[in-house]
Structure formats: structure tokens, C-alpha cells
Amino acid sequence: MRKANPVKIGSANSPHASYLFFIPITGRGFLSNGVNAYLILILALVFEITLPCSAQVGFEEEPANNYQIQVFLTEEQSLMKVFPDCDEVVYDEIILTDEEKNRIQNRLGRRIFEESFIVFVGINSGEVVGYAIITEEIGKFHPYTFIVSANPKGKIRDIAILVYRESRGAEIAHKRFLYQFKGKSLKNPLRINKDIINITGATMSVVTMCSGVKKVLAVIDEFYLSGKRTDMIASLERVKFGVEEQKGELTLFKKATLSMGTTFEVSAYVSDKYKAEKVFNDVFKEIKRLDYLMSNYKEESELSKINKNAASEPTYCDDELAYVIEQSLHYSNITDGAFDITIGPLMKKWGFFKGQGKIPGREELESVLESVSYKNIIIEEKVKKSFFRGPSIAKTVFFKNPDTQIDLGGIGKGYAVDMAIRVLKGNGIKSALINFAGNIYAYGTPPGKDSWIIGLQHPRKSEDLLGTFEIKDKAVSTSGDYEKFFTINGERYSHIIDPRTGNPVTGIVSVTIVTDNATKADALSTGVFVLGLDKGMNLIEKLPDVEGVIIYEDINSKLSIQTSSGMEALFKINIKESLKDVESDVIITGS
Q: What confidence category does residue 575 fall into, taking pLDDT thresholds of 50, 70 and 90?
């Protein structure tokens, strides 16, 4: 047989290009006598997979957005399934220290992304009969949720799938597959097709299921089988099921985390602490996911990939990220460029990214002004090839200027608030308040009240309140130079820069926007701040379902307040001498 001739398929420079090997042979039979033919032998075929935000165009086995959510069990049903012999289930929240997390990762030989776990303890007649953790792993594209329980000796009692989101591979929820895990422990390697029989078409889900099971067993072993937390079990709170939970009075729970370089706080009225912890964990997971999507500080984020590649060629972009960018361009249009997500180069020139303000020269500013324009961002739909399913439509991002960069700091937190509210609603919460660095959403109302009371901090006297207003099912965002500014030779320079001139905005001290969603409020509070008093208030009055408060310096450098027509009746200027005398559920400051 003659030497095979490899033929490259795809981009000449693509590291993912495929090879077909053509082997020339001389044969008879179905071929004409004496005619050379080529028998195509596929010895190695590596499909060029186009990942989100990758500039390569090629083939993928299954589109990432092709999924179907299948709910097999609720959380309550899953606990009853794995603890059928228990008369009581309590729960324990473990917040990992860096040392504990590293120890678990070393045992597993891989990274874990959880910062905490809720561990359920099944008890029968006062004796512990098992431990369980509800966790998630990523299949091929999407996360699936499952529960693993183990007995006091560390052997698996039961395992079940709660939610599966892939379009294929739901067979891992079948009893005959899950039964293979029963009785196994950390001592078992859980090898595919040796310890655990694989499922054709669901290999990635099977692999990650094995990894997830080991993770749960490692956590249980680290904290309970070792005896570290067994003394605490008697004092743990009980999980309330069904009617018992519904009868419980609603209590206000609060929790905060750090994300996107600032504090994210959620307050919610929930029936008990366990429900609150579960809800808060779900919300914080969503915020962390969005941080990895939109951060321009994390090199591995989807936005960082866009910023790295989009000036060279149109770059495929994650659908959700493309949506946020498109929303940004919309608000740039309606504010005549006063809101602009390409502001980054100017922020660097003024020293705000490093926290050390400086006054750049005019030439310095002009050197980057051409790169600062939302019109430099081109979003297009292109055909994305799929070997198995045919072509599909995907979004690409391209920068017309090589120095253009996207910074979603002026809209990303608002979008994150909207997504967090969606998580709260999905968990059945009816009353909650989110505060993300001046971006607020007041969802529902506190029990027994008609609204949430929002307090607006005085922009120059942090111990004073400027005024209050009451809202429900509304978003609020305040932009101002409350915290981020610098002073040189007695002059105050705001961190809010006009992208059209390159200079910090003067005259405006604070802008508060009240509207139906936090994404809109976040973008408009910045845009109106840059537009100034007259143009900014005109825009507020023109837009439907948008109200606002603008605080500005008058000709005597004294602070004055102007409200939109619909805000006049809502905003109550504070006349009390002390903050203690003013009732408010949250105090908002300008970010």
C-alpha cells in the first residue's frame, strides 16, 4: 500500500485543523478496470471546535445553547429519597478556609470552585445515619445538579439527579446507572468502564459525575468522618419540609460577598435559615458566573478574550455577553455617547484604575480619544458551521480601532442585579432587596408594609441623609463622586469622565435613576451624569418609566436638588438632625 497523503481541512494556521488521509490504490470490482481510486480512510479526525469568544470558525458536535432542562427531583424530594430511614434532617454550612480548600483539591487532584458547602445530616432516633451534599458539575456544556449521600463509614448510601440540562445524556439519571455508585468510597478509583460503566453519548457527564462524587466524599471525610465537626451536629438547625415550612414566619436574612471589586449584599425574607443559605448560595454562584463572564481584570474571562482578539478579527462571542454589549450600545445611542463602555483608556490616563489620580496633558488625552467611542464596536451575526447539525447563527465582535477596549463597569453590576433577582424568584422568594455598589433592586415588599424605603446619602457628608423615597419592584442606581475622586490644588476631580472630551465631569455631584430594571438604571445614571443638568433631566422626562434625582452645584457652589416630574411626590428631603431619626431599609451611595 502506498504512502498516505495528509490533506489539511480548515484554516491554514488553525491549531484545530483536521486531517484526512487519502491513500491511493489500484483496484477492480465496483471501480472501472485499471482506474486509480482513492479510498478515504479517516485515521485521525479532530473537529475544529469554535469556543465562545474564539476567532476560529469550524465545527462543533453540539451547539452550547442546545439544551433542555429536565427536573427529576426537587431538593425536598431528593433529601427524602436519600434519607428514607431518618426522622430528622439537619444542615451544616461549611465555609472553606484556603487551607481546607487546598487540602481537598490536593486529595482530588483537581480544582474545585466552591467556597462553601451545605451538608445535610440524616438522624434516626438521635443517631447519625448519613451525610449528603447537593452539588453541581458541568457535563459537556451545562451544569447538572445531583445529590450524594454517604454513611458514617464514608460509603455511598444513595445518589440521585435533581436537574439535568444537556440535550443528551439524561440516562445518567437512570437507576441502573446510579446503582453502580452504591457502596463505593474514596478508596475506589471510580474508573470509567472498569468501576463505572460508561453511557454512550454521555461520556462527559459520566466523567464529571465520578469527579463530583469524589468531591462530595472528600468533603464528608474531611469534616465529619475525621471528627472535626461531629460535636456540632446536636446544635444544628433542622430542615423544615412541606407544610411545616409554609407555616413558618418570614424572617429577614442578610448576607454579603465580594464580587467585581466591591460588595454585593442581598437581604431576603425567608422562612428559615436553611432556606436562606440555599438561596444566598444560588445567588452568589450566579454573581460569580457573571464576574467570569464580564470581568476585564480576569484574563480567562469571556470579556478579556474579546478585548484580546477583537481588534485583529471578528471574534465569536458568548450570546449573553453579546447581549450586554448590545444593551450598552443602545444606551450609548440614546445618551449621544455620554455613556460609553470603551472609556477604559481615558480612565487609565487619569489614573483611576490604579487608584492614584493624576492630570494628564492634552496630548495624552488626544492620543487615546479615537479609541474611545462606542461606534468602534461592530457586532454582527455570522454563520457558525456545525458538522452534525448544519449551520447556526452566532454573534461576533470587532473593534475598528486597534486600541479600543470594553469595560462593562458602568452596566455590568446592574445586569448582575437583574440576574440575581431572577434567581431569587426562581427560589420562590417574594420579598428581597439587593444592593450592589449603589445598584439596588427592591423586590416585592417587606411583610406588613407597602414598600421599601430607600435612603440617599448626602454626597458631601457621609453621616447625613439627603432624603428618602419608597418603591417596590423597581431598580435604583446612583452615580456620583462620593468615594472615587482625587483633589489637586484644591480642585476636586470626579472619576466619571465624559468620553467625548476626555475630561472629568464638573458641576454634577450625583444622579439617581429609578426605573424597571437595574441594567437600565446603571447605564442611565452614568449617562445622565455626563449629560449634565438640563440635557440629563430632559432625557429622564422623555424616557418612559424612568424617574430621577440630580444633585448639582449651583452658581454659589452650594448643592441643589432637581427631581423629575414623577419623582417630586416620592422624594422626601431629610430635615432630621440625625440618621437615627430617619427610617430606611437601605442607604444608597454613588459609585
A: low
pLDDT computed for residue 132 by the predictor: 97
- Name 48's bridge partners: none
- pLDDT tens for residues 384-409? 776 555 677 889 999 999 999 999 99
As a whole number of angstroms, the distance between CA 12 and CA 20 comes to 14
Reading the block at residue 549, the C-alpha cell is 434625582
- CA distance readout (Å), 9 to 12, 49, 66, 385: 8, 13, 26, 13
- Of the candidate ranges 46-60, 265-279, 412-426, 468-482, the one whose mean pLDDT is the lowest: 46-60
Helix (H, G, I), strand (E, B) or coil at 107: helix
Q: Are 399 and 325 in contact (CB under 8 A)?
A: no
Q: Is residue 530 pLDDT above 60, yes or no?
A: yes
Among the listed residues 451, 519, 525, 440, the one whose alpha carbon sits nearest the alpha carbon of residue 475: 440
- Residue 308: CB atoms within 10 Å: 14
Residue 337 CB contacts under 8 Å (≥ 6 apart), including other chains: 373, 374, 499, 500
Of 261, 397, 402, 423, give the one whose Cα is nearest residue 324.
397
Average pLDDT of the residues in 435-457: 94
Greater confidence (221 vs 234) lies with 221
What pairing do the DSSP bridges indicate for beta strands 251-259 and 262-270? Answer: antiparallel
229 CB neighbour count, 10 Å cutoff: 15
The answer to whether 399 and 370 are in contact (CB under 8 A) is no
Alpha carbon distance, N-terminus to C-terminus of the chain: 72
Residue linked to cell 484604575 = 353
Helix-, strand-, coil-residue percentages of the chain, each rounded to 5 = 30, 30, 40
Asked if pLDDT for residue 315 goes beyond 60, the answer is: yes
Q: How many CA atoms lie within 13 A of 559 on its CB side?
A: 13
Long-range contacts of 170-179 (CB under 8 A, 24+ apart): 170/70, 170/202, 171/199, 171/201, 171/202, 172/144, 172/199, 172/202, 172/205, 172/206, 172/209, 173/70, 173/72
User: What single DSSP character describes residue 42?
Assistant: -
Q: Give the domains, in start order, of the chain with CATH numbers.
A: 5-41 (no CATH), 67-239 (no CATH), 251-269+410-588 (3.10.520.10), 302-407 (1.10.3980.10)
